[in-house]
Amino acid sequence: MRHEWIIDVLTDLRGYARANALEALAEQLADAQAVAEVELASSAGERDFGTSGQGTGSGRFHRSA
How buried is 23 (Cβ within 10 angstroms: 0-12 exposed, 13-18 middle, 19+ buried)? Predict the structure, then answer.
């Protein structure tokens, strides 16, 4: 996958947040990492089937505040 680096960046940011007692930020970054992992897996599946998925909203998380 060409976007896997984003997982590493989010992991590093989460580690920094935890090391500096920024627990709420660390939790938000964990959520962001989970979303990134799902979207990357979803986009890999779309490539396997030859579809773009653009405009369908498939594989997207919508979280209410």
Answer: exposed
Measured between alpha carbons, how far is 14 from 12 in angstroms, rounded to an integer? 5
Return all residues near 65 (Cβ < 8 A) that are at least 6 apart.
none
Closest CA to 28 of 10, 3, 5, 8: 10
From first to last of its 65 residues, the chain has per-residue pLDDT tens of 588 899 999 999 999 999 999 999 999 999 999 999 999 999 876 665 444 444 444 444 444 44
Give Cα 3 distance to the centre of its chain: 10
